[in-house]
Amino acid sequence: MKSSFADLIKSEIPVIVDFHATWCGPCKMQAPILSELKADLADKVKIIKIDVDQNQPLASQLGISGVPTLIIYQNGEQKWRRSGVTPKHELKQIIENL
Fold first, then answer.
1. Are 7 and 66 in contact (CB under 8 A)?
2. 16: which strand partners?
3. What's the domain count of the chain?
4. Residue 89, class by beta-carbon neighbours within 10 Å (0-12 exposed, 13-18 middle, 19+ buried)?
5. Which domain holds residue 82?
6. Fewer CB within 10 Å of terminal CB in the chain, N or C?
7. pLDDT at 2 over 70
8. What angle do CA 60, 61, 63 make, to 5 degrees?
9. 30 closest CA partner among 43, 44, 49, 54
10. Which among 8, 13, 24, 94 is annotated as catalytic?
């Protein structure tokens, strides 16, 4: 069974949603940053990647106009959002302060 987006972000653990596209250069730079962050924080964070081209209705509903766009959710509530490449240390600090 496929989880709905609402179910995926209803977590006490912060959930980083990476809205990206396969053709996007900055998205390719963001991917290893997120992998390193996951390695550092392990079970303290969830990371979900969503391809905007394959999920256009969701991207439109959330107002995603540029990629990469990262949104951090906790308990289903948006806590932080930014478009563009975000450094690991900044993401780590945000998650640790939630």
1. no
2. 47, 72
3. 1
4. exposed
5. 5-96
6. N
7. no
8. 60
9. 49
10. 24
Amino acid sitting at position 81: R
Q: What is the pLDDT of residues 3-47, one digit of tens each?
A: 799 999 999 999 999 999 999 999 999 999 999 999 999 999 999
Contact 83, 69 (CB under 8 A): yes
CB of 19 closer than 8 Å to CB of 65:
no
Query: Which one of 16, 17, 27, 45 is the catalytic residue?
Result: 27
Residue 2 a catalytic site member: no
> Is 63 one of the catalytic residues?
no
Residue type for position 57? P
Q: Round to whole Å and give the CA distance between 34 and 56.
A: 22
* Tokens coding 52: 């905007």
